[in-house]
Fold:
Amino acid sequence: MIRHRYLDMMMGYRRNPELIKVLTGIRRCGKSVILEQFRKRLMSEGFPEDNIIMMDLERMRYIIDSERMLHDHLSRSIKNDAPVILLDEVQLVKGWERAVESIRLQYHADFYITGSNSDTVSESLGTHLTGRYVEINVFPFSFAEFLDRYPIDDENGYPQRLEQYLRYGGMPIIDLNDDLRKNRTILRGVYDSIINNDIRPRVELDQSVLENTTAFMLSNISNLTSYNNIAKQSLVGDQRTVEKYLDKLCGCFIFYKADRYDVIGKKHLKTNAKFYLADTGFKDAVLLGSEYNEGALLENAVYIELLRRGYRVCVGAYKDKEIDFTAWKDGGPEFYQVCLKMSDAAVLKRETGSLSAIKDGRKVIITRERDMPDVPEGIEVIDAVDFLLGER
Structure:
């Protein structure tokens, strides 16, 4: 399936060859496929095939393992000036950023690279390529892409497809038409590869610490928590150990951290945060037989969709009330509440209370309620399917 959103973004940066384009995201979310699709799109628009160089550094990790070898290999591969160079999983080559910058300057090369570990990639970019790169965040399939792959049919309408999306996620490597157990095994394999290849070599953590902490996080997505609370509830005990481990999980893009934001004081708060999965399917794959918490999974999906659309997102705090998301894009903040059902008067009052007190900004409630209730003026109520398909 063609990932048009990312290809359009990459084509938009073609006029800025001095910038290195960096695609980041969780392992197996489709970055390599996007690079190949970009290569084909360039050729379809007349760019010479022999002036495009594409390298999968994961497959070549035992052939190219230093910046010198990467530099020499690229130099030998370049046939003409101003090539387009596509490098997959650059974090596997230590010092890659120096080789890339050297080749870029020497041959006026236009670079597009991917990375699955922000600790390695971001540190290299920030140290050696400050101001000379742009990051493109790649996520698993959106709900719109999910429907392109699994269209509505006689047995599955929008409600059924949304439930499947929330339960099994949108990782491109799984196939809902295949055996469920096989899909769980594939996703569990991705999770294990992140732990064993990206985290364990960099942080010395006991296996029980890894399992307890991850199990707690997966069971508590969308819940406001703190490092200290996570340490206690997961029976780890050491807050610093938990903080280090979660930083690595976020660095590998399996979790995203949403800090709290004081709407009145207009400042970020250091206490408590929420953690969301890059793909909701990991909960089902790692915690076999876990309870299907539709409300938490929907909130997770809305958070990732906002990030996908280019928003910066925090958990809103308004006096003693919580606003699920405070989000910024091009202008002032927008405020979102996510609520499965609003037919209960107490729920309706809770969800609208904080939003009603806010004077400025777009205010939205996202719900799966079929019969939309009356809400105070200035608040929008949007069906979850309509929201998730909003930019289709």
Summary: Residues 137 and 281 are 19 Å apart (CA to CA). The radius of gyration is 22 Å. The mean pLDDT is 90. The domain at 4-137 is CATH 3.40.50.300 (Rossmann fold).
